[in-house]
Design goal:
The chain has 197 residues and is mainly α. The protein has two domains: 47 residues, Homeodomain-like (Arc Repressor Mutant, subunit A, Orthogonal Bundle); 123 residues, Tetracycline Repressor, domain 2, CATH 1.10.357. It has eight helices and no strands. It is elongated. The N terminus is likely disordered.
Length: 197
């Protein structure tokens, strides 16, 4: 009986290379869209990332697909940070650090969303997914801080998000990030002072 022979030829290119190309393209795209909005071409992004246009299209067949991937990546990094911070910090400090990352996310959102909204496809599902990820992460952080006794039990994560987002939304000056950080410090101090003894 003849059995099928396993392919012993040259192995396929490692998936890690494809992942690095994708990550590099998203990093370059984020910067390019932030600096030039929707005017940047995909060819320019590929060239700046040091890959061919064919490589870009394999990962992102359209400009809209690239914009959505960049936005989704930013949200997922923010969501994953909650678990990482809780593993390395006390709950209240993890909450403070994460809210600072939330400010950075808002900064990216201010730059990416106009180009994303200019695209032809509907981004409602992406925004819904993003909101759910962010709220879940904030809830996780607040729950740990309540459980540890760092903050009072009636603190609502969504209130913190609204406070920081609303402040950031109305401040477009160059120093708005530093101001947002100060607001976070005030919020954290208030939450800590209200904690049960």
């Amino acid at each position: 009986m003849v059995t099928a022979k396993k392919n012993s030829g040259t192995p396929r290119k490692p998936r890690a290379d494809a992942e690095r190309n994708r990550d590099r393209l998203m990093a370059v795209a984020k910067t390019a869209f932030a600096e030039r909005g929707g005017d940047v071409t995909l060819e320019e992004i590929a060239r700046c990332a040091g890959v061919g246009i064919g490589t870009l299209y394999r990962h992102f067949p359209t400009r809209d697909a690239m914009l959505q991937a960049v936005y989704r990546h930013e949200v997922e990094q923010l969501a994953e940070a909650a678990t990482r911070l809780l593993a390395s910090m006390k709950p209240l400090e993890a909450l403070r650090a994460w809210l600072r990352l939330f400010v950075e996310y808002i900064g990216t959102k201010k730059l990416i969303v106009p180009a994303l909204n200019a695209a032809t496809s509907d981004s409602a599902a992406l925004f819904e997914y993003s909101s759910a990820q962010i709220i879940d992460s904030a809830n996780q952080l607040v729950a740990h801080a309540i459980e540890s006794g760092d903050i009072h039990g009636d603190v609502v994560a969504l209130d913190l998000l609204y406070a920081v987002f609303g402040f950031s939304k109305t401040n477009d000056q160059s120093e708005w990030v530093a101001r947002a950080y100060r607001l976070i410090d005030i919020l954290i101090a208030g939450l800590a002072s209200g904690a049960a003894p």
